[in-house]
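Comment thread on ticket #2218

A.B. wrote:
> Attaching the input chain for the structure job we discussed in standup.
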Amino acid sequence: MFGVGPGLASVALTALAALSVPLSEKPHALATFSAGFDAGVMTGSIMLAVMVLIGLSLTIAFTVAALVGVFSVLNYNVLRDMESTVRSMASTSLDMDKAAP
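C.D. wrote:
> Ran it. Output below, let me know if you need it in another format.
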């Protein structure tokens, strides 16, 4: 189940990143997003290992990881508001791209 969440989030957030910038900036935005997403996965994995190494049980370590996911789900409405803002920005930037020579 751990792979399902990041897999679905990666697709949705990549699309959101692509919509939020003008066409000329898409390669930079997607590269930055990809690097940040991969760094987050790596950091989370290392932090789980550190929590276990300092003596926390696997149950506590995975509970902390689950709470991060629950926090994200609880912020769903905030994320939806961000999506609508990004979509309106994207439509404006697409109009600007079409107007450019």
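A.B. wrote:
> Thanks. Noting for the ticket: The chain has one domain: 4-99.
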